[in-house]
Amino acid sequence: MHDDLSPLCSRFLTAADLLGRRWTGVILRILMDGPCRFGELTERIGTISERVLSERLKDLEAEGILERHVDPGPPIRSEYRLTEKGQAFWKVIDELGKWAERWVDVKAPAQKGVGAKSTRAAPRKRKSA
Amino acid sequence: MHDDLSPLCSRFLTAADLLGRRWTGVILRILMDGPCRFGELTERIGTISERVLSERLKDLEAEGILERHVDPGPPIRSEYRLTEKGQAFWKVIDELGKWAERWVDVKAPAQKGVGAKSTRAAPRKRKSA
DNA sequence: GCAAGCTGCTTCCAAAAAGTAAGTAACTGC
DNA sequence: GCAGTTACTTACTTTTTGGAAGCAGCTTGC
């Protein structure tokens, strides 16, 4: 058993913080399929706001996980693609996908409080009402 | 190239949403080491607020990822432990850990805007000032 | 037998992040 | 020169998180 209460590895904390920001996992998953443009990402994700997508892309670019390429058209287009560091993330995404396939029930979304506020049995009392 | 713009698998979306809530990955990582009590989790994570920890534990319990066991002491204690579904998550956490070890630079935290507001090269202009 | 401490949460309030919608900039086509 | 497209940004609202204090049920000290 764990006996020392070691303070988690700071690298792991950084990575968990990254994936702990909303939409990061989904964005990465899509980019695993290949480069993608802003509008295409918006469309594929469906429910993300452009404001937040823009923010995430900047975050991920700043962290060296993806790169932004501008093709000065004339029909100007920008494209986001994973760097080596970003590509290396595929194993995480892949395992997450496998876990989801095995364990996530499609019937019960369970997303952010929808449909299941509290499945808790007892109302957190110790002894009596 | 991807040509269909398939709408991501909803199971994956659910899983990504789960991990996309702040602290979820860290909580799971700690519980991988074995059962843990509320106060112990607070201590090990260090910077999470008790309010949010409580919320996350309820979420994860509602989703069947962990279970709460109350040992009615007398020195009463509650313990959180992973279910089979939760244990199965170890591969994801493991890959995330491996990625972090290989790719995360300890010197540059890059967490939520700290130290790197924008490493962006050009100020997002198309033609001229 | 009662104040003081511990664990495990919950409540209240302020700050930060995400959602919504409209706006902007550089084009294209008409 | 006006509508449409792409890629964002800005302003404003709602939700989520953080921080700290409160509270319930015990135990210990005196």
From TrEMBL, chains A, B:
<dbReference type="Pfam" id="PF01638">
    <property type="entry name" value="HxlR"/>
</dbReference>
<dbReference type="GO" id="GO:0006355">
    <property type="term" value="P:regulation of DNA-templated transcription"/>
</dbReference>
<dbReference type="GO" id="GO:0003677">
    <property type="term" value="F:DNA binding"/>
</dbReference>
<feature type="domain" description="HTH hxlR-type">
    <location>
        <begin position="9"/>
        <end position="108"/>
    </location>
</feature>
<dbReference type="InterPro" id="IPR011991">
    <property type="entry name" value="ArsR-like_HTH"/>
</dbReference>
<dbReference type="InterPro" id="IPR002577">
    <property type="entry name" value="HTH_HxlR"/>
</dbReference>
<keyword id="KW-0804">Transcription</keyword>
<dbReference type="InterPro" id="IPR036388">
    <property type="entry name" value="WH-like_DNA-bd_sf"/>
</dbReference>
<keyword id="KW-0805">Transcription regulation</keyword>
<protein>
    <submittedName>
        <fullName>Helix-turn-helix transcriptional regulator</fullName>
    </submittedName>
</protein>
<keyword id="KW-0238">DNA-binding</keyword>
<dbReference type="InterPro" id="IPR036390">
    <property type="entry name" value="WH_DNA-bd_sf"/>
</dbReference>
